[in-house]
């Protein structure tokens, strides 16, 4: 008798759950799981609040090449699907903007010693791109700084998440990242959310907390659109038309069920004694296809097939 399922963090679990709910005709509203392939079917029952693996860093690839003018990049990321997809999204737009990936280095998830990997970085590189969420981001940045690394770093926003910054400290200073949220957003919606979250948890909000808050907003508006008896079919139809002003900014869905939102280019710096992701630029209305036509983008080889092929 379930009318909607909301949640899921692990993409492998989402891949297992989504077809089952599709068959049962029950809508799934994903809050975190980021595998690109989860939102590639038009008119299905799967909707996602968060990013695809590649979505939030495709604008960063363009920005790194055209605005920062770093002409050659090394990819230094984790060796699993999220690492491949996010690095691939960056590499595609970075190279399409006229710049070049000169090296790809991938480390296993949970790598304790990053020294052998940071020591491989080519002297040819002008910038390093990384996808290293969680403690891998802490250990990678420490190893890089310990070995005297001076080249600028650009990253998927999860690599310098607000929960990591107190530990990363000065090792993250200056890292520029792409993400759909920053606790530094100056809007009434984000101020209300951040105040409520901080009061409840004594912590700074981050993307994952905002994803859950936005899911509540989405569900509330969808239910307000349903007339008469609430059914899974009516909720699914209502989700397709939802548009809210979330803490991150405008949020809606494309015809494939993937969130469309602003992507923020952020820079780690100190503010009032705390390390934060300050916003330096905004790219509005970014879809999972970014600047590409959907049919063209969907015809590209998947990013797991492209790992190791960006250097040419």
Secondary structure layout:
Layout: E1 5-7, H1 11-24, E2 28-30, E3 46-48, H2 58-66, E4 72-78, H3 81-96, E5 100-107, H4 115-118, E6 127-131, H5 135-146, E7 153-156, H6 165-168, E8 176-179, H7 188-201, H8 207-225, H9 232-239, E9 243-246, E10 249-253, E11 259-271, E12 274-286, H10 294-299, H11 303-306
Helix pairs in contact: 2-3, 8-9
Summarize the model shown.
The chain has 312 residues and is α/β, with parallel strands linked by helices. It has eleven helices and twelve strands.
How would you describe the overall organization of this protein?
This protein is α/β, with parallel strands linked by helices. Helices cover 35% and strands 23% of the residues. The protein is built from eleven helices and twelve strands. The chain has helices spanning 11-24, 58-66, 81-96, 115-118, 135-146, 165-168, 188-201, 207-225, 232-239, 294-299, 303-306; strands at 5-7, 28-30, 46-48, 72-78, 100-107, 127-131, 153-156, 176-179, 243-246, 249-253, 259-271, 274-286. The strands form two sheets. Strands 4, 5, 6, 7, 8, 9, 10, 11 and 12 form a nine-stranded mixed beta sheet that branches. Strand 7, helix 6 (165-168) and strand 8 form a beta-alpha-beta unit. Helix 2 (58-66) packs parallel to helix 3 and helix 8 crosses helix 9 (232-239). The longest helix has 19 residues, at 207-225. The relative contact order is 0.15.
